[in-house]
Amino acid sequence: MEGRLRLQLCLAMCVQVLVVGTVVVAGAGARPPAMYVFGSSIVDVGNNNYLPGAAVARANRPYNGIDFPGSIPTGRFSNGYNTADYVAKNMGFVLSPPAYLSLAPNSTSSPLVLAALSSGVNYASGGAGILDSTNAGSTIPLSKQLEYFNATKAKMVAAVGAGAVSSLLSRSIFLVNIGNNDFYVFAAAELARNRSAEEQRSDAAALYASLLSNYSATITELYAMGARKLAIMNVWQLGCVPAVRVLSPTGACSGLLNQLAGGFNGALGSLLASLAPKLPGLAYSLADSFGFTQDVLADPAVAGFTDIAGACCGSGRLGGEADCAPNSTLCADRDRHVFWDRAHPSQRMAFLAAQAFYDGPAKYTSPINFMQLVQSR
Ligand SMILES: *[C@@H]1O[C@H](CO)[C@@H](O)[C@H](O)[C@H]1NC(C)=O
Ligand SMILES: *[C@@H]1O[C@H](CO)[C@@H](O)[C@H](O)[C@H]1NC(C)=O
Ligand SMILES: *[C@@H]1O[C@H](CO)[C@@H](O)[C@H](O)[C@H]1NC(C)=O
Ligand SMILES: *[C@@H]1O[C@H](CO)[C@@H](O)[C@H](O)[C@H]1NC(C)=O
Ligand SMILES: *[C@@H]1O[C@H](CO)[C@@H](O)[C@H](O)[C@H]1NC(C)=O
Prior knowledge:
One of its GO terms (biological process) is lipid catabolic process. The chain has 12 helices and 10 strands. By secondary structure, the protein is α/β, with parallel strands linked by helices. The strands form 3 sheets. The protein has a 6-stranded mixed β-sheet with strand order 2-1-3-4-5-10. The chain has a two-stranded parallel ribbon with strand order 6-9. Mean pLDDT is 92; it is low at 1-27. The structure holds 2-acetamido-2-deoxy-beta-D-glucopyranose (5 copies).
């Protein structure tokens, strides 16, 4: 009873601090009130640890987390922090907000509401796609992530009222990084079906149409639920990850996967440019993960990388044949690898990408960078 009362008191005070804080320090340097994260394994900070089933992609064992404070596996597909953490750090947070499923999502005075009001919540899930059908049953699809956010919002409203929540959400960052898994699943299916080049082109056109219509619906729904600042990362060069390179006798990138991602990214840019003006008050920053990866792979020495093909933690050729596990081979210098495991960036790569998107070269973000997004009104 006493614990509950304290929690409610804290809740009231947290919100007070939050509101006062914004009035007093609205200038540069103030962090956004909260950040809400949606997407796949590149930004998952532990949601998949809570999903049942052997088919779920998990990073809850060593050597994952070997460079995280305390050297613990957290569910991040990284040797340390991941891209969500570094985007958050750049914006003034300590790290990514906590994984939704790690917060008991039931009562109004729960850790969920406290987190949602004070720093945000991360809904991302390894294996998730834009389409519900992508890795169905072993992930939290994007549509479900939005439902979880909607449920979170309802609890926030119950705790502090609709006006305060709407004000908080309008100043918060909504980070979205998704699409890689839709393309992995598509490419594998095309291969299995032995489709001709022409058939692949028409299949890809159909895939784009459904991905873009869902992405558009996702953005419109987030807006309807109160989001006004979207930080969106496009699909990186997924044809170059070790798990894909290992399929080539020479360890080359898959041109097909990179073309699929590149074509999609172009269409995503057009979608955002045409959709945003129809949603009054919406600001967005589209980060070019694809271009950033391409530049790093083309000139890795500039960023201090010496290995751009193999996984730091994995097994088999290029470390690309199995996930990172306690019996994996571990590389000697993790900061010199672009890829941590067979499908994910190393902590160093995540750090550099987030920095580029926050206030790096203008070519990596459009129409504004993440820093300008934070400062926009
Ligand atoms: C939340 O409530 C639902 C249904 O009432 C229950 O199934 C679930 O286990 C509860 N979750 C937690 C974390 O308490
Ligand atoms: C969010 O929840 C409200 C009820 O609280 C419901 O009316 C609305 O349709 C939901 N929106 C989405 C996108 O799920
Ligand atoms: C794939 O299709 C081509 C013709 O388009 C055919 O020559 C080839 O044998 C097929 N391969 C398999 C594995 O079915
Ligand atoms: C995405 O598309 C599928 C059909 O392809 C549909 O069932 C689903 O509701 C869509 N999701 C959103 C968020 O529009
Ligand atoms: C690691 O252990 C798993 C069983 O947990 C086994 O299937 C796999 O072959 C082992 N890999 C190596 C490289 O020894």
